[in-house]
Amino acid sequence: MFFKSLDLTTALRPLLLPDEILLFVQDAVGLYEGVCYVAAEDPRKYSVAIDLKEIDRVESQAGFLKSSPKLTIYPKPQKKKKTDKSRSATASPAVAQQSVLQPTQSLSHIPQTNLQQSSLSPKPTNATWICPICSFSNPVPSNFDPATANAATNLPPCLACGIKPPFTTVLKAAISAVASRESPLLSSVASLAIAQDIDQPNANASLSHFGSGGTVPCPRCTFVNHPSLVECEICGAPLSAGSASANRVDSPAPLFEQSHIANTEVSESIKLSFRAGGDKTFHERLRGALVQRKWLLQNAPPVPSPSQGASEGLLSPVASVESTLPSAPRHSGVGIAGLERRGLEARKKNELVIGNAFEDLEALMASAKQIVALAETLARESGMTTNESSPETSAVLSESAAALGMMTTKDMLNSGSESLYLSELARDLAEYLTDDRKGILHREGGIMSLIDLWAVFNRSRNGVELASPSDFQKAAELWEKLKLPVRLRRFKSGLLVVQRYDWTDEKTIEKIQAWMEEIQRVPPDDPVPWDWSLFGRAVTAQEAAHRFKWSVGVAAEELEMAEDRGVLCREEGIEGLRFWRNHISSCGYRDFCRLAI
Amino acid sequence: MTTTTPFPFPPTYNFPPFFTPQPNTTTRHSQLEKWSSLIQSWCRHHRQYRLSLIDAVESPLFHNTALRKRLDLREARAVVDWMTKSEEEGGGGRRAEWISDAGGTSSVGLGNGAGQGLKTVAWIWWRRPEEWADVLVDWVEGTGQKGSVLTVYELIHGEGAMSQEFHGMDTDVMLRSLNVLVKRGRAQIFGGEGQEGVKFF
Known about the structure:
The complex is a heterodimer of chains A (597) and B (201). By secondary structure, chain A is an alpha+beta fold.
């Protein structure tokens, strides 16, 4: 069982970890998992994530007659490469790619992994890379590990022509080789280290699998061994079940308890049923994600400085392992010289990262995490050093980082499903509006016209995947239906505005009244012919807009709304339209009656 | 027709929005009520029974010089229009009545309503004829003149009625009030045009 409960954002979408990205969204998907079927009616309750560090294989099955196309996902807990799939509410599952482990996890595992790797890191691989110069097929160096290698790793030159290969060529070759390799071939060390990444449910899985029969099948040759054996009798492969289960018993916080799915039994596979099509794209993207294995980067160490890499000379297994250790002590100088040197190293590292990233589109994708981190750092630094002096620059920088974040684009969805696109757009908008970092709605005084929002929103998309006005309006009309925290409101004049869900006319009127009372207490600058202590003074839409940070159009509408409620009354004059507290129907009436009789 | 004390304007008279027609129905209703009260008390203060809008829009009644605000002719007409309607029609309880007949106005000193078309001059009923009739009956009974005969001129300008509210009343209004009493069977009018006599029962 690797269903996990899922955190949802305000827009009822999966909350992605910092480096996760949305790959694909598809609605109308049924989920079969053993006998368990999840109907997603209450989004918060039934949303489920397959925290799948552990998908192994995916098989697709075409639809036949009334049976929908299905996708079967086989979990393979022994392998630590997996896509993270998130399922969002209202039956629109999203595949996200996980590229970051929980910090605690990776910290606790590194020392062990590292210890064992030093003894057996040269793993037999039969990967080859093609020299771009002479197209000779070279073997990938045996100590080249795609999970830890980076551009600073030294690569042997081509055997035929002696030209050093680009890093990305070797990386891709190594990745594809790893992808084609079967998991049981992994060394014992790898499986042991990974076993601790497995969640408690997996421990249950192995226990119920192996424990019940009292025998342990070898993962490599499938020979059924006696449970007390540590290694396979036939092939000598390590049997991880016994030892792993011993220290997994007390592993904390079984995740299945957090899940709302009642089924705690182990299932061999998960079936997704695509009732509205889209299975092909979904399958493709999922497979693509599986092949790319970007999550391998998740515990990649920080890029070592070039100076360090250069000093190591040729690869030695131990040295390379050490260089990948984040905990490896770095004897840098102290004092100003040390700081200077560190700054220099950081700059060189940044140059290297940027240089590599643009070498190749694939490499850019692989380096996306670093690039985003870099962009964020730059934004932060510029914000700190210039300190408000160039807010626009830092805004642009942070927006460029945000632009790499989660935005649903049309091609991310099945092109046929317009309604899904609209609902995703509606969610995007709601998230965009309620995002505290940007504070769009707050800055506009809690209310802004739809036109303004459209302009701001499209600008923030940096000119790609712009939303059309009609799509935009349709999406905004969906807010109410999707129970999102913003709502669309139409003023009498037909002006469409966006407000927080809990914002009401009464609140606006309260604000206006408080303001009016405030005005009444302040004597006017120039003598006025009326009794200001009784009537106060008039306000215009411009003043209201300034006071409440509304746009003028919105302010005019709000004032007229208050007038409509009888709170204000109007005065038309050569100065234009001005609004007063309504003294016509509230006060002074009694005086009149007295006079009249 | 004139009194020495200045007319005490109500506070709302100095409220600028008072001179702008309000779009909100509720507010508009209160606004019209206030205008109606203002016009009635103005006329009462000045012992005025008919109001010529042409003249009135230039008077302090509709023109607040301090605020530099005014009710223009069209708006003033709308207010009086509202006053002419009964409360059942959403109006001001028939506190006014348009004088449509130009010939009728010519006999009175305010005759410049003639030739201006309809709806420029109106009776302002700060007391309606029925109410005047009651006042007259009370006075007649109070002074023991039941059964005696009085001329209309005596009623309006006579020394006996000097202290009464209807002293100096418009002749047309007096006749309408007396007609109300006739219908009720409390009085009888005889005599010719301009020399009517009245007998109270």
